[in-house]
Design goal:
By secondary structure, the protein is an alpha+beta fold. Helix content is 45%, strand content 10%.
Length: 129
């Protein structure tokens, strides 16, 4: 396989870079010099949209148990499961999705994970000093 078999814009990017090189100008930060799919995690974008987009009008429940997410809409539920990376390890139970690795899920989605038991004990001990 050659470099640009899966990237239709590989050659235009190279031409863009060469033109800026010839003109002795730096390539602007906004220039699309790499594939969008390599720069941004598409699964994460889709998962965040499903969970946090207020315009989707879905009733989503993120319960007190950080491992349970409920997405009643079948299509959105399936899209959410497909968007998760394998290391998150989630299981689907009807409309409920059980995240078996909630700390990794929180890191991946960009939400602060709840403190571990050790972190809670340390903060309590420092508070008592």
């Amino acid at each position: 396989l050659n470099k640009y078999e899966f990237d239709d814009l590989y050659i235009p990017r190279k031409v863009w870079a060469e033109l800026y090189n010839i003109s002795n100008m730096p390539i602007p930060e906004w220039a699309p010099m790499q594939q969008y799919s390599k720069k941004y995690d598409q699964g994460k974008i889709k998962a965040k949209k499903i969970l946090f987009d207020k315009h989707l009008k879905l009733s989503k429940v993120i319960s007190n148990d950080p491992r349970i997410i409920e997405i009643p809409d079948y299509k959105q539920n399936a899209a959410f499961i497909q968007s998760l990376p394998q290391h998150i390890n989630a299981k689907k139970h009807g409309a409920r999705i059980e995240v078996l690795n909630p700390r990794e899920f929180d890191k991946w989605i960009g939400r602060a994970p709840p403190p571990t038991l050790v972190e809670r004990v340390k903060s309590t001990l420092t508070w008592l000093k």
